[in-house]
Amino acid sequence: MPRLNLYQEEFYPSPIQNTWKEFKENHAAVVSLYCVIFFIFIMIFGPFLAPFDPLQQHIDFLLVPPAWDNNGDISHLFGTDGLGRDMLSRILYGCRMTFGISLLLVVVSMLIGVALGAMAGMSKGFRSSMVNHLLDSIMAIPTLLIAIIIIAIVGTGLVNSMWAISLALIPQFIHQTRDIVRQKMKKEYVLAAQLDGAGKVHIFFNSILPNMAEMLVVQVTLALSVAILDISALGFLNLGAQAPSPELGALLSEGLSTAYVTPWNIALPGAAIFFMMMSINLVGDGLRSALRYRLLR
Predict the structure, then answer these.
(1) Is residue 139 within 8 Å of 203, Cβ to Cβ?
(2) Helix, strand or coil, per DSSP, at residue 12
(3) pTM of the model
(4) Buried (b) or exposed (e) across 254-293, using 16+ Cβ within 10 A?
């Protein structure tokens, strides 16, 4: 009979490995994850992939249809707009701007929201009660409406729209972090750390934050899709990025005047926004389902 190795360690997968195993079972989420990676690639290398400058005008190529049309030109794969600007270059720069700015806004909102949510979750009394009622009131208002109200006060423009969207996203992270921190504060390992004399900052960074990292990833994916929709909507309403900026919402606004003549000037930027949001939402749903299944199991 073979001898048993008493010193052989049994391998236990980590929570991240278990979550990835469950995530891979959702094929739509995996395909969407590759799409998100593709948009990240465009965000980084978009200027190197664009064949022309997005603001360069080609007078001899006005309103050229895409290359797959009978009247198209291979040098302008996605056609041109009313000023002769290459649509492929403008969409590449637009994806870079829309996705990159949205990602930056979500990261900033997450850092501020997690810090405020941690303080609200660890505090008690009148201060915590006031924060709860204020958050409940703000969460009932759509983020786009909050951003429009802020822009109406501070003025239009890309920078002001970025500030507005950040301020609209922060309450979501505060609410999510506050609920998680309150749940974790009742755990035995947190109570043991408190009895050991650990401070609130030490407890949060060493006991609570590592156990809520996966929940924050899910919240970031959902907030990212909201930020993309909001910044595109503000650009479309001429409240955010202004022409001739190659932002996807601004591209939709510019193509609206020639929609019946050049429908590709609306269809292509709209398709980019659609696939960007759909892939991010499917990744978020896949992560949420994987986390729920792992916790239940």
Answers:
(1) no
(2) coil
(3) 0.86
(4) bbeeeeeebebbbbbbbebbeebbebbbbbbbbbbbbbee
Residue 179 φ/ψ, nearest 5 degrees: -65, -40
Q: For 198-223, write each residue's pLDDT tens digit.
A: 777 888 888 888 878 778 888 898 89
SS3 for 52-94, per residue? CCCCCCCCCCCCCCCCCCCCCECCECCCECCCCCEHHHHHHHH
How many residues are listed for the chain in this entry? 297
The pLDDT tens digits of the residues spanning 13-49 come to: 666 777 778 888 888 999 999 999 999 999 999 889 9
What lies within 8 Å, CB to CB, of 155 at 6+ separation is none
Q: Report the alpha-carbon distance of residue 79 to residue 64 in Å, rounded.
A: 5
Q: Based on the number of CB atoms within 10 Å of its own CB, is 151 exposed (0-12), middle (13-18) or buried (19 or more)? A: buried
To which residue do tokens 């701007």 refer? 97
Number of helical H runs and strand E runs in the chain: 11, 0
Q: What angle do CA 179, 184, 187 make, to 5 degrees?
A: 145
Distance CA 165, CA 18 (A): 34
φ, ψ at 289 (rounded to 5°): -65, -40
The DSSP letter of residue 258 is G
Amino acid at position 224, single letter: L
Half-sphere exposure in the Cβ direction for 133 (13 Å, CA): 5
Helix or strand or coil: residue 4? coil
What's the token pair of residue 36? 């998100």
User: Contact at 8 Å (CB) between 228 and 279?
Assistant: no
